[in-house]
Amino acid sequence: MYFIVNCSCSSLGSSSESAIGKLFGCEVENSSLCRCGKETVRSTLTLLFTMHYPEQNSQEKTIKEYDFAEILKKSICLEQSTQAAAEEAEGASLYDLVVTVPHILDARTGGNLVAHIKVGETYHQRKEGVTHQQWYLFNDFLIEPIDKTEAAQFDVSWKVPAILYYAKRNYHTKYDLRIKNPIDASVLLTEASLARKQRKSHATFIPLMVSEMPQAGDLVGLDAEFVTLNQEEAELRSDGTKSTIKPSQMSVARITCVRGQGPNEGVPFIDDYISTQEQVVDYLTQYSGIKPGDLDAKISSKHLTTLKSTYLKLRFLIDTGVRFVGHGLQKDFRVINLLVCHFSYFSQICCLVLKDQVIDTVYLFHLPRKRMISLRFLAWYFLDLNIQGETHDSIEDARTALQLYRKYLELSRGGGNDEVRKVLKGLYEKGRQLDWKVPDSDTGDGQGSLKTAAVFPSVMGL
Question: What angle do CA 138, 144, 149 make, to 5 degrees?
C-alpha cells in the first residue's frame, strides 16, 4: 500500500527546456511511502493542477465556507492512498523484459524465429568502453541494434510472440555470478578404457599426479587427429570451376596433451582415442595415423574413451587457464567444437578458449602475406628433426610444437623482433629453394627419432 503525497513549490520549472515550461511550469515532488517503510521521492514538472473541493452534504441546510487558499493548498499537496508494490518491499521482486523470440510468418517458407536480446552494460563496457544497454536483433547470421519498442511490439498477422524472457532486476548486484568450475581435477586421473584389449604395456600416456596438476599460465602441448564421416559433395561448373554442394564432415578421433614444463616435459598425460558410433568413410591414415579398428571398442588396443569424457578434461584445462601450444590449433579447435575468442562471454553455456591461451606455431613462424609453413618443414629447419615420415602422430606433433615455441622464445630473447624477422626471411628463402619439401636424410639412421628421444623421456622409461 502506497501513501502518496504531492507537494509543490512556487519556483519556476527550471528543468524544462520549453519556454512554456519555464514560464508556467511548477516542480512537483512525488513522495511515495510504502507500508514496508520504503520512501521514494521523484521530481516532476507539471503545468496543470486539478482542484479538489470539499464534498458538501446535501442534507445540510447551511453551506460551509472555505478559504480559497486552503482549497488550493490541499489540491496541490494532495494525499492519496493507492494499492502498489514497492521496489524493495519484502517478498516483492521486479522483473525486466530482456529477451523476446517472435515467429516471423511466411507462407512460402513457413517462417522463422528471430530473437530480440537486451545486452547489458557489462558487455558494452568491456567491448566498447561505454556503459549502456542496447537491444539487438538476432536473425540467423544478421545482428543489428534496434529500438526497444521494436522488441516488444507484435502483430499476430506476421510477427507472433513465441518466448518472452524476464530477468530479476539488479540480480547481478544481489547474487554472485562469477563462473565456478563445476569440474574438478579428478577428470585428469586414471580412467578405464572402453577398449577390451587394451593393456598397460600399450599405454602411450601417464596421467598427471596430484603434484603436477596444472596452474594458470602453464604450457600444455596439444594436437588432435580427425577422420571423415561424410565425403564432400561437389559439382563441376561449365566454366571448369568446382562448386561445393555439401562440405565433408570431420570428426575428432584422437586428442593428445603433453606436459609443457617440469622434469617430465614432453610426456603425454592425455592420449584419448574417441569412440564413435557413426560410420567412418575415411580414416585419413596418412595424415591422422588412425587405422581401421582403432576406434572400435571390440578390437582396439588404444585408450578408447567417449567424446564427453575428453571434453571434460579439455574444459578443466581451459577453465584452469593453461596455455595451449600446437600447430594449426585454430582448425583443431574448430573441428573439436571449441571457440577461440577475446572474451569469455556466455562461457556458462558454451566452451570457450581465450585467445591469450592459444600459442599457435603456424603463426609464430609466419610472415605477412606469405604462405603458412608445415610443422614438418619447421621441425627440419629449426630442430633438425625428421618427423611425419609415413604417418602423423599426435604425440610427436605436440612435442615438436613445444620445442618450436622454445626455439621462438630463444630467438626473441636473442635479438628481439628484428632478429626473428631476419630468421624468418631466411626460412622462406630456404623453403622456396627446396620447394618446401624436406630433403631425404643423408644417413637414414633415424637421427630425428633419436634426437626426439634424447630430448623427451619416453613413457615406458617413466
Answer: 85
